[in-house]
Amino acid sequence: xxxxxxxxxxxxxxxxxxxxxxxxxxxxxxxxxxxxxxxxxxxxxxxxxxxxxxxxxxxxxxxxxxxxxxxxxxxxxxxxxxxxxxxxxxxxxxxxxxxxxxxxxxxxxxxxxxxxxxxxxxxxxxxxxxxxxxxxxxxxxxxxxxxxxxxxxxxxxxxxxxxxxxxxxxxxxxxxxxxxxxxxxxxxxxxxxxxxxxxxxxxxxxxxxxxxxxxxxxxxxxxxxxxxxxxxxxxxxxxxxxxxxxxxxxxxxxxxxxxxxxxxxxxxxxxxxxxxxxxxxxxxxxxxxxxxxxxxxxxxxxxxx
Length: 305
Description:
There is one protein chain. By secondary structure, the protein is an alpha+beta fold. The chain folds into two domains: 61-157, no CATH class; 162-300, no CATH class. Helix content is 18%, strand content 41%. The chain has two helices and 20 strands. Strands 14, 15, 16, 17, 18 and 19 form a six-stranded antiparallel β-sheet that branches. It has a four-stranded antiparallel β-sheet with strand order 1-2-3-4, with no helix packed on it. It has a four-stranded antiparallel β-sheet with strand order 5-6-7-8. The radius of gyration is 32 Å and the shape is elongated.
């Protein structure tokens, strides 16, 4: 009588068991696992939606205050609370981070209309490339009497202001053909086009009839005893702050030259301006406030005398 090999019996049984497990597993994945993923996704989305609703913690933190003006700024959870003469107004949609760094608070008339505005700068983020702390600016126009005041809030930040400023002011940097050892930085309002000599590369000198057009010169970087070749102009993000002395909102932007021969950027100088509130209620460039302060390390005289 032929003896049966136990291995021949076990192998078909194992195959049958594995087939059953695959069927059960597939059914579990379809009926249980996939719906569980869907449910988890729906629940996480719901949580995110719930978390986006502004919340208070009940623990109020004083951020800044001006005692002589009865002004104070508080934070409670997601809310920023402005208190003036005992009247409180809450804001939950302000973009800045009021927790990382203390905001700056002033109460000044920035547009000379005889009415003071509430001025707040608050930290938003840090530009790692240039190591610049960037702020949001809030200008609150106040109307009404104590106890029943209303506030119109005007806001800008580094990116918004840079885009706005670029619509009205032209900045130009080149290496004049007549003076390859120099860089020429020129600035003008958009309605006064920059004019320059195509042969020398010099921008036309400032005329009394065009006081808003100005020119500055800097020495170029040198590599191995040779003048570097100017490639392009670049700038750091615009920094908005409140002047400690005048309390006026101001902006500065550092200007750099980039060269073909080196990765080193050359700091040319600082572009600056003030922010004011216009008659038609817009944050705008302060009258005659745009200027440029060249870097003294590289500053040069106008070669034309």
